[in-house]
Every structure is written in C-alpha cells, then in structure tokens.
C-alpha cells in the first residue's frame, strides 16, 4: 500500500471519528440543557375534532389489496418491489353516473 493511499485512509477514519465525537457531544449537550425534554409545540398537537366521510353522490366500490408474496417474481422476502400485488373490487363494475 502506498504512502499516499495510507494517508487517505487515515483521513477518512479521522473524519468518521470526528463526526462520531461531534454527534455524541451535541446529543449530550442538548440532553443536559433540557432541550430534548420540552413540551410539544401547540401547532404539532392534533385537535380533538375528527373528520368524517362526506356524503357524495355515486357508487361505493370496496377495494381490497393483498400481497401475493415474493414467490411470484422470484424476489427476496422483505424487499420492496419484489412481489406481486392483488386488487379485488366489489362490486366488479359500476355505472359512470
């Protein structure tokens, strides 16, 4: 390994250690001052009002979605985009009114 490459590797390690130390120091500082224990701002709290579904003209179609598993596409379990999805509508048809 050349001296230039070795120096570059040590710079990366030193930068990672510095970032870790800075992150820990910042977290400890915020925890010690109580900045992490404050009350939730009023704008972040949900109001007590609930919303409902408005009465709209037309037909209701219930749609059920299910994952058919990774075996359909040969994917790995737990990975997004690797399985097939199944959609079932009830009723299957609705008028255009």
Please give the count of helices: 1
Sum up the overall morphology in one term: elongated
Judged by helices, strands and strand pairing, the structural class is alpha+beta
End-to-end gap = 75 Å
Total count of strands = 2
- The level of helicity is 25-40%
Strand order of the largest sheet: 1-2
> Main beta sheet: strand number and arrangement?
2 strands, antiparallel
Order of helices and strands: HEE
Strand coverage percent: 5-15%
Unreliable stretches: none
Report the mean per-residue pLDDT as an integer.
Answer: 78
Gyration radius, rounded:
28 Å
Descriptive account of the structure:
The structure is a single chain. This protein is α+β, with helices and mostly antiparallel strands and 97 residues long. Helix content is 32%, strand content 12%. It has one helix spanning 3-33, and strands at 62-67, 85-90. The protein has a two-stranded antiparallel sheet with strand order 1-2. It is elongated, with a radius of gyration of 28 Å. It starts with a helix and ends in a 7-residue tail after the last strand. The mean pLDDT is 78.
Based on the model shown, name its key terms.
97 residues; single chain; two-stranded antiparallel sheet; alpha+beta; 2 strands; 1 helix; elongated
Strand and helix layout:
Blueprint: H1 3-33, E1 62-67, E2 85-90
Summary, kept brief:
The chain is of the alpha+beta class and 97 residues long. It has one helix at 3-33; strands spanning 62-67, 85-90.
